Amino acid sequence: MGKVFVIGIGPGGEDYMTPAAREGIMSSDVIIGYKTYIDLIRPILGDKRVIDSGMKREIERCSLAIDLAEEGHTVALVSSGDPGIYGMAGAVLEVKGEKNSPIEIEVIPGVTAVSAAAAVLGAPLMHDFAVISLSDLLTDWDVIKKRLQLGAEGDFVIALYNPKSKGRVTQIEEARDIMLQHRKKETPVGIVRNAKRRGEEVIITTLGEMLNHSIDMLTMVIIGNSNSFIQDGKIITPRGYHL
Ligand code: SAH
Question: Which atom of ligand 1 has the smallest separation from the CA of 114?
Fold first, then answer.
């Protein structure tokens, strides 16, 4: 009986992959993942069997990983960032239950995009924050809007995953409008594209101005709370120390 590792490879830069993730990949003989992620780790894959597939085939990928493990293979299912955060960990565990499979599944965490982006921006997450995905492929937009509303009302720092894609452009505008109902237009906003990997770009702006900058699926948007401020090109959300 083989095993499935569900591995978070971090934001993409090799330095940000944990030794445990590397170890999991090294000890696997089959590597499965979305092509972009496979390409990020290609240099360490040697001549391992690699199965890459398009984004929409998550469930098939999980099912294949379990079948191969049942045949005796050690399989690495790779996700970017952390596999437990909008990644593959949940799906593979659900598919295991569905198939009634006895195989062992080990989840190896990774540096998730929000940590990587926050580090680039300074210290925007120093107080309570909410992470919200703007993708309405698997979640109703009404549910997402409600979470945006309550997060804004609760004065959480808000981090947006999947902020905008080619076919999904209005959600970020609505999200910004919801935030503006509760926060000043001067509220600091950080936009980080390709955090901690090749092609990193960072913009520090405000809630009022954020839509004047380019935002896409490789981008993380972090909206400060009512106390966040900008200092020397970094965003800081005070923890509450009396300095
Ligand atoms: N499991 C991943 C998240 C997958 S959802 C993780 O833990 O990071 C995909 C979204 O994550 C992207 O649309 C983008 O919003 C964000 N993202 C992933 N990597 C990123 C990076 N290096 N820089 C900025 N945003 C990133």
Answer: 8
At 69, is the secondary structure helix, strand, or coil?
helix
CB 143 within 8 A of CB 149: no
For the stretch 26-56, pLDDT in tens is 999 999 998 888 888 888 898 899 998 765 6
Supply the residue whose CA is at minimum distance from atom 3 of ligand 1: 86
Can you identify the CATH homologous superfamily of domain 3-111?
Tetrapyrrole methylase, N-terminal domain (3.40.1010.10)
Instruction: Parse the chain into domains and list their residue ranges.
Output: 3-111, 114-236
Strand order in the sheet with 129-133: 129-133, 157-161, 219-223, 188-193, 201-206
Centre of ligand 1 to C-alpha 135, Å, is 12
Mean pLDDT of 92-107: 97
Tell me which CATH code domain 114-236 carries. Answer: 3.30.950.10
Ligand 1 centroid from CA 183, angstroms: 25
pLDDT at 214: 96
CB 186 within 8 A of CB 225: no
Tens-place pLDDT, residues 170-222: 999 999 999 999 999 999 999 999 999 999 999 999 999 999 999 999 999 99
In this structure, the number of other CB atoms found within 10 A of the CB of residue 171 comes to 21
80 lines ligand 1 (CB under 6 A): yes
Full-model pTM: 0.96
What's residue 37's pLDDT? 84
